[in-house]
Amino acid sequence: MLKYALIIFALVGFMTQANDSRFTTESQLANRYTDEIADFWQQGEFAHFSGVKNIRINYAAFIHKETHSNSANKCLVISPGRSEGYLKYKELSFDLFNLGYHIFLIDHRGQGLSERTLANPHKGYVESFQYYVDDLATLIESIVSPHCTVEGKIQKPYLLAHSMGGAIAARYMQDYPNKIQAAVLSSPMLGFNGGGIPEFIAEPLINTTAQLNQLLDDTPWYFLGHKDYTHTEFAGNLLMHSRLRFQQFSQLYKENSAIQLGGVTVKWLTESIAALKTIFANINKITTPSLVLQAGADQIVSNQAQNNFCQQLHQLHSQSCPHGKPLAIKDAYHELFFEADIYRQQALTATVAWFEQHP
Question: Which of 18, 240, 314, 357 is deepest in the core (most CB within 10 A)?
Fold first, then answer.
């Protein structure tokens, strides 16, 4: 227990730091994005593999050319959130690569540059949530592991997952309990923020809509109020406080129509709800040391679900969720790694500290 008390002491100390010079700041970003980060991105390997049902799954990999003590044991897999792709993660990949990590990013099926399975490519859809998990397993087994060996022995990678990617990561760690060295779940989708609609109303509404969709139409419907991709303005957004990072994110999606994604379908919702129930029903199977980063002002996912997850997980496995709580970053919005420096620096410093505590 002393070990984990010291970890918490260290993390809380990091949370008070105003700046960590290892990570890109907003004042550096404008020039660095078109210079150093652009040069770094040119070094990447951009390829794809066949996921479940032969769906094309795109990924990016950034491998240190020279294997040395600083990078030999440090492979990092990034599992993005819904509607995201690896193109959005240039700054984060750059910062973590420069700390010695080999970086691997996956575009989950139906988003990013990976293959869409519906005639309307804007619809957020998955036939089975398990397919996300199986695709991630293929990436780690077939792409990541061959790059992460020392003297013929496979070194377990670290896992950094955001939002929906956090739910995928949790399910992966349940199915493959000995494959990850340590995990950080950033604003994980462990429950939905219903915007004031009680769960006992929301879930029956989703299920009824799903039944109607199945009965009346072969084409998956958008859930109520969801539609094709539309550009949103910075003012009033609930993703990040950083105007610069929001503008870069928006410009990326404007210039790359192939990565645009609209709202969610009823099928995606029913599959996700079922997956979340599986996560909590089998929480004892998550034995990987896991840290949950919570955005204090998150209105996208449920912070209470994250609290419940950490309380239960810590009781079962004390190496996860120190003190039985997420590490909350006060006042931050959902996108912790694209936030204003005051929040992003805290999230990144805590992330790296957690990985360093689990060599």
Answer: 240
Helix 129-138 to helix 266-281 angle (10° resolution) is 70
Q: Is the pTM of this model over 0.90?
A: yes
Do the beta carbons of residue 291 and residue 321 sit within 8 Å? yes
d(CA 173, CA 93): 22
Instruction: Give the helix, strand, coil percentages of the chain, each rounded to 5.
Output: 45, 15, 40
Distance (Å) of CA 240 to CA 166, 171, 237: 18, 27, 7
Question: Exposure of 244 by Cβ count < 10 A (0-12 exposed, 13-18 middle, 19+ buried)?
Answer: middle
Find, among 102, 97, 115, the residue nearest to 58 by Cα. 115
Tens of pLDDT, residue by residue over 254-306, are: 999 999 999 999 999 999 999 999 999 999 999 999 999 999 999 999 999 99
- Helix ranges (H only) for 83-216 are 90-97, 129-138, 164-175, 199-216
β-partners of residue 76 are: 103, 158
42: Cα separation from own chain's centroid? 23
